[in-house]
Amino acid sequence: MKTSRRGFLRISASAAAVAPWTSETFTRSGRFEQSQGSDEHGPVLLYSNENAYGPSAKVLEAIRRSGTGVNRYPRLRYGALVERIAAEHRVTTDRVMLGAGSTEILRVAALAFLGKSKQLIHASPTFEAMEHYATSVGSQTSAVSLTPAFAHDLDEMLWRLNSSTGVIYVCNPNNPTATLTPRKDIETLISKLPASVMLVIDEAYHHYAGTSANYASFLDRPVEDERVIVVRTFSKVYGMAGLRLGYAVAAPKAIERMRRFANEDNINAVAARAAFAALDDNDGVKDFVERNLSDRQEFFNQAMARALKPIDSHANFVMMNTTHPAEDVIAHFRRNNIMIGRRFPPMDTYIRVSLGQPQEMLAFWHVWDTLPYPRTGMAH
Asked: Which domain range does residue 97 map to?
């Protein structure tokens, strides 16, 4: 008989991990209205970099209240939400565009600035949506390997520039590696870009990155450059992945060019109302960021107890080298009712693990310890 999700978590929690969580780890979870993300017979979901705790109680209340308005198109809310996001980032409304998730923003950017005679330059591996959309409109794509520190190789990207280049895509923090590309290096890239090349900076995981000499958002500390498009999403820290809402902030000319390719009524009434609550819930965001810091540190504690060395993470997921084919490891977890990230060529021995709630991570390590080959001392 297949073990249910609830039963599996109960069994896994009773099997002590190498370095168990403290009681505070569990009590702090009480700050949030718990979200399982699947029914009790479904798998443990550690594969899509979602907020395992979200959305916050305030956002959930806004979602509940929105039910009375779903018979109306959200056109009036569109303009109001654009104004709210513009105020959040201290820009004018003509610099903001909404999308059905940040992936729609990437799609319209491909339609607006790429095509059969154009080239996209992107990292490898990185979030694949931009590459897929570029290919769908007939563009050539040029994949640049990450540096040994798993940052974008911006020098190589500059070297790949030619007269057909339309867009350079930089995901920072990068998915799937959860690593940072230094802010100063991106600024140098911008200073050397030809006037015809757009730079799309995907900041989906911005809230988890923290502040450091290496990182500063291009919205919190903007550059006045018409070639820069910054992309954000409500899918991650705000816990709204299922509602599909994202946005871009860019120069008015770039926004107008992209808007031509956006779907009409591309956001829904529930997402719009939830977004207002999310943007006003600073305490909720702070709690989610703190929770992620704790969960991320515990993942590294568990990894170090097993002599593992994951890649340093600045997001809500972790990538590490198993030294075995990733597909085999992924299949092992799937057989044990846990879904982890897919394979990310060319890093074919690495797995990406989205951080879940404490009991879900206990389940992860329990299954890790049943892998049918040596599981300690694996390389970075």
From this structure: 58-280
